[in-house]
Design a protein that fits this description.
Keywords: Hydrolase
Distance between the termini: 22 Å
Organism: Collinsella ihumii
Strand content: 5-15%
Protein name: HAD family hydrolase
CATH superfamily of the largest domain: HAD superfamily/HAD-like
Number of strands: 7
Radius of gyration: 19 Å
Pfam families: Hydrolase (PF00702)
Structural class: alpha/beta
Order of helices and strands: EEHHHHEHEHHEEEHH
CATH topology of the largest domain: Rossmann fold
Shape: globular
Number of domains: 2
GO molecular function: hydrolase activity
CATH architecture of the largest domain: 3-Layer(aba) Sandwich
CATH class of the largest domain: Alpha Beta
Strand order of the largest sheet: 4-1-5-6-7
């Protein structure tokens, strides 16, 4: 039974030039860290981007959170201790007070067309919702982008961030950890996302995905634009249950 719909954020609920956003974030935060730690700005920028890459490796063996992994990488590569409360507060201040003003014509972040109606359609059916954005950033940074997308008042039961995750997409542990937190099984949830690599758990864990990006991935339960999602939700539900029934039949035959 479908109990919840979980959404990706960037290019799903939020229309954004994500590459430009990451470039601004990495440049300004690494410059801030270089100033605080009295380090070379170029070497700190290299350390910062390498730490981001460390976090975004889907396959890795760790028990710590993504935040702890990122902080340790910055300390190892750049010599700055992000767990120091003073430094942590400086970064949080930047992400809460300065970063929201960086939304310029290049980043161009705004609500995705159809996103509000999609959320309304899901909630009107009594389904639960969560925001399963790739947790490459801290909570304050994610909340900044949620603000740009007018998502801060949406009743998401969970928003994945660096602080509350141990993996990133498409690692299945990222998804199972989030669904465990919600008390849900993969078979009870529909993922909505635009990324043909990240928004499908790899390997498959039985989590269906409505794809709102370009193309028609074979694993997608439904493909279309975000602005078509709400008006197509009856069809999406039907496809969800048909695929769930087919998966059950396949499982029984294998047994």
């Amino acid at each position: 039974m479908l109990k919840a719909v979980v959404f990706d954020m960037d290019q799903t609920l939020l229309d954004i030039n994500l590459s430009a956003f990451i470039a601004v974030l990495a440049k300004e935060e690494s410059a801030l860290l270089a100033d605080i730690g009295r380090r070379n700005p170029l070497s700190m920028f290299a350390a910062y981007t390498a730490a981001l890459l460390d976090v975004n490796r889907a396959e890795r063996d760790n028990t710590c959170t993504n935040r702890e992994l990122f902080d340790a990488a910055i300390e190892r590569r750049g010599g700055v201790v992000l767990s120091d409360p003073v430094i942590a507060d400086a970064l949080t201040y930047y992400e809460r007070e300065i970063l929201p003003g960086r939304n310029d014509a290049i980043i161009d972040a705004h609500p995705m067309k159809g996103a509000a109606k999609a959320i309304e359609a899901v909630l009107s059916r009594g389904l639960r919702i969560a925001l399963l954005t790739n947790p490459s950033f801290g909570a304050a940074c994610i909340e900044c982008r949620m603000g740009w997308g007018q998502l801060l008042d949406v009743p998401f039961e969970l928003v994945t961030t660096m602080e509350n995750t141990r993996r990133v997409k498409p690692n299945p542990e990222y998804y199972t950890d989030a669904l465990d937190e919600l008390g849900l099984k993969p078979s009870e949830v529909l993922m909505v996302g635009n990324d043909r690599q990240r928004d499908f758990p790899t390997p498959d864990i039985g989590l269906q995905t409505a794809f709102v990006g370009r193309g028609t991935p074979v694993r997608a339960t439904w493909c279309g634009r975000m602005d078509q999602f709400a008006e197509s939700f009856d069809e999406i539900e039907q496809r969800f249950y048909k695929r769930a029934e087919r998966n059950l039949i396949d499982l029984v035959q294998e047994v």
